[in-house]
Design brief:
alpha/beta, 8-stranded parallel β-sheet
């Protein structure tokens, strides 16, 4: 198995206020664990800068210009109460999009087996016209549209195991049956969406988890809702919105998973990719705010990607 890693120093220059959980140290923690000998075989690449035109795959031009206009020349500007931008945030966001799209290109070209993108800012809370939840643009949604436009993918599945529901991805694909969105997430919790009753055009599959849920219930939700939905959908590509804040150490939620659960879920999705998608699997970093929980979980996730 050849697993590619995309990352870039520009992601460290997306700055947030002191004490903010979505901070550059998250990527430094990931860099440290992926420097271990277990990961010597990783195909490490610098993320390419994205094409700003591809942002329009998921967001209207007026919104893109609004975000761009909010990037400060110095200091930190608040986009909303949780979401900030600094002078390099536009460059970081565009490079995150470039990496996500390049990862899609890679798996369709079969130059690698799968790809993990370690980038910031995250994306899954960004709705069509709203930046929120630390997110400016929806990387996973743009990558899904890129797969359809550049590679003729008819059906793209996005599986989101971040502990917070990906309201942005759901919003963008709400009435689009060509994209399946499956999410496991704590409920009640920010952003307040993700009920079982939210089904879109039959392409939205939510699996809300009660606070203090552990491994057994998480795996049951995967086995009874997410994996059968993938079998029904038969995707040409699987994209993971890979948040690791359902780890028991994470300060922003109350789900009690550990790195073994992320290893298991990764393996299950790789199996579905092998069955339906010619192995095509792309993983994009979303949340995860305890540095040890994040790094251990990313390590487990990437080891599984490399093992097959």
């Amino acid at each position: 198995m050849i697993t590619r890693l995309y990352t870039h120093p520009i992601y460290l220059e997306h700055l947030t206020p002191a004490g903010h959980p979505e901070r550059p140290d998250r990527l430094r923690a990931i860099e440290r664990i992926l420097a271990e000998a277990d990961f010597d075989r990783l195909d490490r690449q610098q993320s390419p800068e994205g094409d700003a035109a591809t942002i329009l795959y998921a967001h209207p031009e007026e919104y893109v210009e609004k975000v761009k206009s909010r990037i400060p020349a110095e200091g930190i500007a608040r986009i909303d109460e949780d979401t900030s931008a600094s002078p390099k945030s536009w460059d970081a966001a565009l490079t995150a999009i470039g990496a996500a799209n390049a990862a899609v290109d890679d798996v369709f070209a079969k130059s690698v087996d799968n790809v993990f993108v370690a980038s910031r800012p995250p994306g899954h809370h960004a709705e069509k016209v709203t930046a929120m939840g630390f997110c400016l643009f929806n990387n996973a949604a743009i990558a899904a549209r890129h797969a359809q436009r550049a590679h003729g993918a008819e059906r793209v599945a996005i599986v989101d195991w971040d502990v917070h529901h990906g309201n942005g991805t759901q919003d963008i694909f709400w009435d689009d049956p060509s994209v399946l969105y499956c999410s496991t997430h704590q409920m009640p919790l920010y952003p307040g969406t993700g009920a079982l009753s939210e089904t879109g055009a039959g392409n939205i599959v939510n699996a809300p988890l009660s606070p203090n849920t552990g491994s057994d219930i998480f795996r049951e939700a995967f086995n009874t809702r997410v994996l059968p939905a993938l079998d029904r959908f038969e995707p040409d590509l699987i994209i993971i919105s890979a948040g690791f804040d359902a780890h028991h150490r994470d300060p922003l939620a109350e789900i009690n998973l550990d790195e073994d659960d992320f290893d298991w879920a990764t393996g299950e999705l790789m199996g579905k990719a092998d069955r339906w998608s010619n192995g095509r699997l792309v993983s994009l970093l979303e949340g995860g705010y305890d540095l040890q929980g994040l790094s251990f979980s990313v390590g487990a996730h990437v080891r599984r990607l490399m093992k097959g």
